[in-house]
Model the fold of this input.
Amino acid sequence: MPIVHGGVPSPFVKKTCAFLTEKGVAHEVRSMAPFPKTPELLGMNPLGKIPIYQDGDLTLPDSSVICAYIERVQPKPSLYPADAKAYARALFVEEFADTKLNEVLGGVFFQRIIRPNFFKQEPDEAAVKKTLDEALPPVFDWLEGQIDSPQGIVGGAFSIADVAVGAQLANFRLAGEKVDAARWPKLARWCEATHARPAFAKLLAAGAFPM
Ligand SMILES: N[C@@H](CCC(=O)N[C@@H](CS)C(=O)NCC(=O)O)C(=O)O
Done:
């Protein structure tokens, strides 16, 4: 069975697992932390990051690369739009989720989940408040404008864009936050529908810090 190396607390491991589950690809998650940078980790990914996908003699780092590869070897159900412009839009939403959204929401997850569980320190709630008040609104404003339907950000069909954003928002939810429906109604409805899908429901049910 293919292996996903990494810790499920990682939003990129969640993205990979949700994508594989949506594709019907059975997989095992094998615990591997991205710190310290062991020879084993660097041997599989020179960037020293998780997730890493392993299937027989294939070792593949990076959630975006893994998802694109799985789409080729397991084309159904298709999780990348066929139309060229929709495809490009979905890829950019994925990129936005993996970078800006991860940077902002990752700060909240770090304070509320990683700090107490990993470093045995109290969360810095002032830092969380600053993120929620200042960094988060423009990011959610942009996403609100991207959502075509609760069934799919791009063109109303579930795609890689939904998997990538859904993974980041799963960690936001596990950190005790939710999208304010009064301020971002489309994003809030989309989030409810996406997290109700079995692939995400399973990850959310596992809790914030399974290893
Ligand atoms: N672009 C990568 C990002 C992966 C990533 O940043 N993973 C984090 C864990 S959530 C990591 O391994 N961080 C270790 C580091 O930055 O050195 C992907 O999509 O897989």
Observations:
- Strands lie at 3-5, 28-30, 52-55, 58-61.
- Residues 10-12, 34, 48-51, 62-64, 98 surround glutathione (CB under 6 Å).
- DSSP finds eight helices and four strands in the chain.
